[in-house]
Amino acid sequence: MQTKKKRPVLWLVLTAFLVVVCRCDGSKVTLYTTDNQPIECQRFIENASSIYSGTECKFYCNGFLIPYYIDSDAEIQNFTLEEVTLKACGPQTSSASVTEEPTEEPTEEPAPTDPPVDTAPLQPFLTGNASSCFRDPYYVNFSISPDASDLNPSGLEVTFGNVPVKCEVVSTTGMNILSCSYPPGIQFPVLVSVRINGSLVNQFTFDGAICTTEQKPKPEGTDEPSDPNQPNPPDCSTPTNDGC
Known about the structure:
alpha+beta, Immunoglobulin-like, eight-stranded mixed sheet, four-stranded antiparallel sheet, rod-shaped
């Protein structure tokens, strides 16, 4: 019987404890930061006396939703969203920095290089000047460059325009010339190209301004040659001459 009498007392003690520590949620409220960002919060009371006790706001910190308790609305309204989040969550580690692997800097590919150039290209064979030129017979004499290493190179080819011409090296006192015969149909100015073993060593325009016609010398005396075996023409001053 004594045990039964104690049970009402235990229930009274337990009910009083629950009333003291009970937390009851109040109304929901939206608070705005100084940069006009809304934050959803909820009022709460700690006991049955319905006295306002505080406000609970929630923030996402590092991907987790956590509660942040404030005693005054000014803790939200007097700061920017970034400042409030920093107070609620502390310094955060961005998800990008956690999951992203470091990227390697792109390596620059070396720029393409030009093929090596022959360090000893062929020197020009001619100077580009002509010392003389004639028509009938048709030939022109070009001056050979003093820097030409070989006066009789193998594979020497000369063209006037697209017409191959025959040339030969002639050495004179203190001067070397390339004498080229050309066909009568060549018209000046003409593009002269010189190749040695297929490589172009000269290309220039010859205007033919110095070309002249070489005249053969005529015998002295009359303009026409005389034949001693040819009879003299008849004298037509006499009317009776039958040869007139």
